[in-house]
Predict the 3D structure of the following.
Amino acid sequence: MEETLKILVVDDDEVDRMAVRYPLTEAGIKMELSEVGNGNDAFSALSTTAYDCVFLNYRLLYPDGLTLIQQLRSSEIKVPLVVLTGQGDEQIAVQLIKAGATDYLSKSKISPETLVQVLRSAIRVYRAEMQAALANQQLRESHEQLIRKNQELERQQQQIQMQNFKLSEALLLKSHFLATMSHELRTPMNAIIGFSQILLRPKFGQLTHQQADMVERILNNGKHLLMLLNEVLDFSKLEAGRLDLKGEIFDVSKVINLAVGEMRSLADAKNLSLLVQTDLQNPLVFNDPVRIKQILINLLSNAIKFTESGEIWVEVKELPANRVTIIVRDTGIGIAPRDFKRIFEAFRQVDQTITRKYPGTGLGLAIIDSLVRMMGGKIFLESKLGIGSMFKIELPRQITLSTEAADAPALQLDSDGVFCSAKNQHHSSFQASKASIGYPKFQL
Ligand code: ADP
């Protein structure tokens, strides 16, 4: 041991103290040795000074060795303590260790070697005990910290649950409000549209040019409003899971042509060419024709709305594994990749300002997304700002309805992509389609 050790010898017999001092000096221990002759002085010395080790005579007069050890321990004075016992005191030594002594040594065995050995081991044991106590203390503290953090987490979890509950309640109320309002507004709107149409018929009397113009505006605005109301109603139904697909077998190319026909006047008004290419050997699909038309009308109205010049193409092709793809491309303003995901969220538009150039509710793509999901299909978007956009929808030729058991179709699609029943068989053939116009891509 290189450090200078502070050692205290407690013994009421001068000769016995010497019997400790000399061997320690002889052993060459670097030390500052202090001696006291009774327990009280020992207690005061230990209260004021930190010692590295104490040699204590067990047979101290007042207080005796055991009492002094107990006093030291109860006043939290920690020091390595070696008790020096007399002949036959070994039994007592065990008691002393239990009370808090670090070690004991019979006076008859005192020698430079034994003293150095017992001194080193007492200091080592004491330091190990201190380290263990410190580690224990740290463990206790981190355990308490963990408990506190757990309690905090539980509180936060309860708060989140409460907020979640309030949010879903608000969401439900919002959906209910949207559904009720759009439903209620549709009735007067239908009356406005109906009566404007009647007014425009010549048999109800001839309107002046100006009057006819005004009624036509009422009619067109009424139709536009009804379309917006229908969008809101569809969206609230989709959100509440109350929109059902009505499956039937139909010619998808006919539905596509119907939708394109309805949108042609809008494209013409902007001098946009609207081209359709149908490449289907088997045009029959099992799906909801009303919703397929709605999807196409939404995509086309966006394509027309966001294109100032150029063309809009609609393509329908067969894909492997009994799938059909519908593609709508335009040469419009395009969409930045950072907006690809956002625009499929309800009420999201690239331009969210109220002074925006292009009108709309921001529900069209959200509705398309939900419908395509319900049909078991996928949407892909490729677009480049200033160049144009391509929305590609891939659908299974035969969709699965949620209430399929109740109204299962009489016709089924077999593994070769053929609708079959006892009476009727329509064949389909397949062609891989990899529509790519080199734009950034996004798949929902
Ligand atoms: P709305 O058209 O009513 O705003 P949509 O959900 O149909 O709502 O579309 C959301 C947004 O996606 C549009 O506001 C527009 O910013 C963008 N978008 C959709 N289709 C196109 C397109 N063909 N070209 C450019 N931007 C488009």
